[in-house]
Amino acid sequence: MAAASGEAVKNKQVLFKDYVTGFPKESDMAVVESTIQLKVPEGSSEILLKNLYLSCDPYMRSRMSKNFTAHPSFVPGSPLTGFGVARVLESGNPNFKKGEFVWGLTGWEEYSLISSNQMLFKIEHADVPLSYYTGLLGMPGMTAYAGFHEVASPKKGEKVFISAASGAVGQLVGQFAKLAGCYVVGSAGSKEKVDLLKNKFGFDDAFNYKEEQDLNVALKRCFPDGIDIYYENVGGKLLDAVLLNMKMNGRIPVCGMISQYNLDQHEGVTNLVHIIYKQIRIQGFTVNEYFQLYPKFLGFVLPHIKEGKIVYVEDKAEGLENGPAALVGLYNGCNVGKQVVVVAHE
Ligand SMILES: NC(=O)c1ccc[n+]([C@@H]2O[C@H](COP(=O)([O-])OP(=O)(O)OC[C@H]3O[C@@H](n4cnc5c(N)ncnc54)[C@H](OP(=O)(O)O)[C@@H]3O)[C@@H](O)[C@H]2O)c1
């Protein structure tokens, strides 16, 4: 039975315990039960959300570090925060109404009272699975679109390589690249993921980077004439091998470097000199600078979804109590597709 307005109800939460060094562990988080009154305080512009789906994203590791410069850290003893999909239960903000579905920044808990200046988008198209707004139609989708179309400026016929290619971002970059008429190869960490790349997402070729003796040889096999665009998700040894295989005037949109996030000492890259001779443009970006393109992105992607030209694979962990394992699993490649935590079904 649905809880009534003003009622005090149990609120399961995932708390961040303390700052992390090295690989995060499930025990860095605690699942607890508190209570919450289902009411927006009188005169407040806050929004009360019932969380439905939470997004596990690699950047959340940086928020577990003390004094990370690019993001504020999680607060020990408080719930994790991140992207999610929710239903509005009550709202002191006239832009959001009771019953509406939204996606944006929320808490890792069943119910969240969030301030109205949090990043929150109203879901206008609910005829697709709502969980897609944690991935394909949310932050990762926007990241794939911005990094590929805005940063890399692809041209028809170009050769594109994508790392962490079966994940939330990578599977989309590959499909966007195919729609743009490119030749597309991806790398991933298991046979199952490589099969998905070739048989579900339509990549032209793919390889399991964990089984290759020599990454340079693997890339030469897939790209005898070199790579025009490398969509960088992992960094480290793979980036080093890619630099040897880039073509003249190649572009490397640097989206992420997940292989480095849990290392105290980052790995060095030795082939940087190729940037000069091949006049390679390497450009880091964060999705935050591109959210103004969200309506344009939806206009591009929704018709493709409806026509079945873009598909999306999700890996759903059922229940908030399974959230910590799902999040930690990202850094061990456990997720097959976009990792989502199902808090409640709509
Ligand atoms: N710039 C931005 O604004 C922005 C926004 C969103 C995401 N990102 C970045 O985009 C990248 C992909 O994110 P996502 O959400 O799509 O995650 P994801 O690919 O769905 O999940 C992470 C995957 O990374 C791979 N991985 C983990 N450790 C690795 C290692 N040591 N070496 C190589 N691969 C490793 C694993 O796949 P395998 O089994 O294939 O190894 C794992 O499944 C991340 O680097 C993330 O930080 C950036």
TrEMBL record:
What is the recorded name of this protein? Uncharacterized protein
Q: Which domain of life is it from?
A: Eukaryota
